[in-house]
Amino acid sequence: MAIERKSKQRDAIINELCSRYDHPTAMELYLSVREIIPNLSLGTLYRNLTQLEENNMVLRIPDGSNDRFDGNVNPHAHFKCITCGKVYDLMSFKNDSITFSDDIIGQVNNYSLMAFGHCKYCNKIN
Amino acid sequence: MAIERKSKQRDAIINELCSRYDHPTAMELYLSVREIIPNLSLGTLYRNLTQLEENNMVLRIPDGSNDRFDGNVNPHAHFKCITCGKVYDLMSFKNDSITFSDDIIGQVNNYSLMAFGHCKYCNKIN
DNA sequence: CTCGTTAACAGTAATGATTACTATTATTAT
DNA sequence: ATAATAATAGTAATCATTACTGTTAACGAG
After folding, report:
1. If pLDDT is split at 50, 70 and 90, which confidence band does A62 have?
2. pTM of the model
3. CB–CB contacts below 8 A, A to B
């Protein structure tokens, strides 16, 4: 669904998301934006996150039933601490090289790589 | 939590999961195993999946609030069709080389790579 | 083999993130 | 200014997963 009109709520959501680097969950983001717009509705937050994702203005980081969100829309890898649950950037792009920071953040025990696209065998609109 | 006793239910779950390659969700797996153990409890399925994952006998493929499960515990990449929702194996390992099959399954539009481990900055037991 | 301990189970209730719904507000084109 | 309707606030509903409780069955000791 395309974005057709401006709204203070959406502006505040994007602004908050782009000014932090900790990959907040919907609820964490909600509590932050609430400090600027005290009567922000949780439904509004979710609707905007979905809409912004569809318009490539926000990146969704799948994380069970607690997805995280990132203002950096360039697809990049993440590291999740099994113990505390925090999510860090795993790779950084500088100049033309990719820097892995797994030895800085912590030991990587496991990973999950999921690619998204449209399959050939799909009988739905494709 | 360690597995201490055998159970017919757990055996049936593992057996079903290892005999198919379509990365079923908990519910899909539940319906299949039900055909063998008609009064299998959904709670039992979830408990066993978690336990089997902890004991590296089953791989959990994060997928929103509909995680998928795989009897192949060797970490490997997956491809999810945005249209139909099916999940395929993206990479296959043969001899010493990794074969990417994105051009066979479909076009990759985006990806999500999440690594798991223990971070340095974590103040919980580590 | 029988018994006792308790892991594992079936069935049901509770939880919690997300989505849907409805009446109201506010953006934007005319 | 006004009309059309996108976007919102607040609330209710949904749905996958987890927690709870009484019962069953695996298995080690006698």
Report:
1. very high
2. 0.88
3. 167
